């Protein structure tokens, strides 16, 4: 039998042309374009199988098969290319996601500033470099004053926008190589390299404070916050990050205790004072709850008749081991620890109860903290205490300082008007020592103006002080507001005030603040004179 001989490529093409019914040049063109098909045929080394396959199928079927073989490599190539692009995109997306996770772990999501964790690493790096180079740096701790009242008054959305504005302002006033970080809440930190000593640190801190004192305009709402700054310098105050942080925080606590809105540099003496404040903070709340803080009463005098017309109520704390704690100390602790509302409510309630049965013309005047004019619960608290004690609203006078009016003016106006609506009288305390006094007199419905004691004490030695007191008395008279002079210590001051036409006064000349029992004794001493006056 004749042995089958595998034809060469030329013979194969001729046979394929006959079977497919196509010219040889078309098949050559097709096989050239679909070279992969020929490679497959060679790999299989099975021309006989292909020949049998071609015999068993119609030409149109072979056309479809050849087309499929032709398109298969192109489609595979396109798929491979697209899949490769997809893999690249997925890999890039994964890389970006990983970078974002790393960024969120080291940056504040709201402001984009480095967070506490990244600040710690960066500060350690800066301190290490500075030790090697013999350079100094300062760490500035920043706390926004009264920020929590923004959230209470305007909501967290406005609060978040203000935090973003704060971050932008800080970034705008520091130098390119300085670090601005957000520690949390409304607390920020700046780390600045120093090449010119402490004076450079003071200038940087002053720029920061000035930037944060300006009002924030959010959706048409003007909000004034202010800030307190504490500064510590390495290597003068500390050589490690933890100690530097702690001492900057200590300086910040001093800045807040001294009235906020100021800058304090760390001093060694501050450590002992801060420890004492921490102790007082821990003991203050139990003392308030136990009633250890009590109201004292200082008489208010009609300067013309020398009669008592009421009492100013002042908080006093007799500590079991520390003795009499100065009010300026425990009140600032109460403000910083969020206890000022509870302290004021306790003092007001006890004062109203003590004065309830005194003669109906006697008033009591109670001081409000500046923080409380941003407290939306203040009005309800006052109304509740008046209802509970039965004390007449017309006999209650609430004193606010001008510094209380530089925050949210709109909210302060709402609170003052609401208190006036229930019959409570409002006095402006320490007039002339705050901000924009005349603007406040026009914007708030005050019943009384209290001339600050510093002007009264200096009337005898400073002509300008006497002119200021005279001007305030005239201003109050023209605006229909009663004027009271504080700090009267000697008879000469009282005589000058009477000559100037000041109707009311208070001070050590007429008596210091005394407990409720001693105040009641003063009131009892008034009764015979009142009875005599009524009988005549």
TrEMBL record:
PROSITE patterns the UniProt entry points to: EAL, GGDEF
Protein's organism: Teichococcus aerophilus
UniProt KW keywords: Membrane, Transmembrane, Transmembrane helix
Keyword Transmembrane helix found: yes
Transmembrane segments: 27-44, 64-81
UniProt domain EAL: residue ranges: 277-527
Name of the molecule in the record: EAL domain-containing protein
Annotated signal sequence range: none
Residue stretches making up the GGDEF domain: 135-268
InterPro entries assigned to the protein according to its UniProt record, in alphabetical order: Biofilm_reg_signaling (IPR052155), EAL_dom (IPR001633), EAL_sf (IPR035919), GGDEF_dom (IPR000160), Nucleotide_cyclase (IPR029787), Rev_trsase/Diguanyl_cyclase (IPR043128)
The keyword Endoplasmic reticulum appears for this protein: no
SMART domains, alphabetized: EAL, GGDEF
């Amino acid at each position: 039998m004749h042995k089958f001989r595998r034809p060469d490529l030329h013979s194969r093409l001729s046979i394929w042309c006959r079977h497919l019914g196509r010219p040889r040049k078309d098949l050559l063109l097709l096989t050239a374009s679909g070279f992969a098909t020929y490679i497959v045929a060679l790999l299989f080394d099975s021309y006989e199988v292909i020949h049998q396959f071609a015999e068993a199928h119609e030409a149109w079927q072979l056309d479809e098969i050849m087309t499929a073989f032709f398109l298969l490599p192109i489609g595979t190539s396109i798929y491979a290319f697209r899949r490769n692009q997809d893999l690249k995109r997925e890999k890039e997306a994964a890389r970006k996601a990983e970078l974002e996770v790393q960024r969120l772990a080291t940056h504040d999501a709201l402001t984009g500033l480095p967070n506490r964790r990244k600040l710690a690493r960066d500060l350690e790096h800066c301190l290490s470099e500075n030790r090697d180079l013999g350079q100094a740096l300062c760490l500035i701790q920043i706390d926004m004053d009264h920020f929590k009242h923004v959230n209470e008054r305007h909501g967290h959305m406005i609060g978040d926008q203000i935090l973003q504005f704060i971050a932008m302002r800080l970034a705008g006033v520091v130098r390119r190589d300085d670090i601005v970080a957000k520690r949390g809440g409304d607390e920020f930190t700046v780390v600045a390299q120093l090449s010119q000593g402490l004076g450079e640190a003071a200038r940087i801190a002053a720029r920061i404070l000035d930037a944060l004192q300006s009002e924030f305009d959010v959706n048409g709402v003007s909000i004034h916050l202010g800030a307190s700054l504490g500064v510590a310098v390495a290597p003068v105050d500390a050589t490690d990050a933890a100690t530097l942080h702690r001492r900057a925080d200590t300086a910040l606590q001093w800045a807040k205790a001294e009235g906020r809105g100021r800058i304090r540099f760390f001093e060694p003496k501050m450590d002992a004072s801060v420890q004492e404040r921490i102790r007082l903070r821990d003991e203050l709340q139990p003392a308030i709850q136990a009633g250890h803080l009590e109201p004292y009463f200082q008489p208010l005098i009609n300067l013309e008749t020398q009669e008592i017309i009421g009492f100013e109520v002042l908080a006093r704390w007799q500590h079991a081991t520390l003795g009499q704690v100065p009010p300026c100390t425990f009140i600032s602790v109460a403000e910083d620890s969020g206890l000022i509302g509870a302290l004021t409510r306790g003092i007001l309630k006890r004062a109203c109860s003590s004065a309830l049965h005194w003669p109906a013309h006697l008033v009591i005047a109670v001081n409000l903290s500046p923080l409380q004019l941003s407290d939306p619960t203040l009005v309800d608290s006052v109304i509740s205490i008046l209802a509970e004690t039965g004390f007449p609203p017309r006999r209650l006078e609430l004193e606010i300082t001008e510094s209380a009016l530089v925050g949210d003016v709109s909210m302060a106006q709402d609170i003052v008007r609401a208190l006036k609506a229930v019959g409570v009288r409002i006095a402006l305390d320490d007039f002339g020592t705050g901000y924009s006094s005349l603007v406040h007199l026009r914007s708030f419905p005050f019943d009384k103006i209290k001339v600050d004691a510093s002007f009264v004490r200096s009337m005898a030695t400073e002509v300008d002080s006497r002119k200021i007191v005279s001007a305030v008395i005239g201003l109050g008279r023209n605006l229909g507001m009663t004027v009271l002079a504080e700090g009267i210590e000697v008879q000469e001051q009282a005589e000058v005030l009477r000559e100037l036409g000041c109707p009311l006064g208070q001070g050590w000349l007429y008596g210091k603040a005394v407990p409720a029992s001693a105040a009641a004794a003063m009131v009892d001493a008034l009764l015979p004179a009142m009875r005599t006056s009524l009988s005549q």
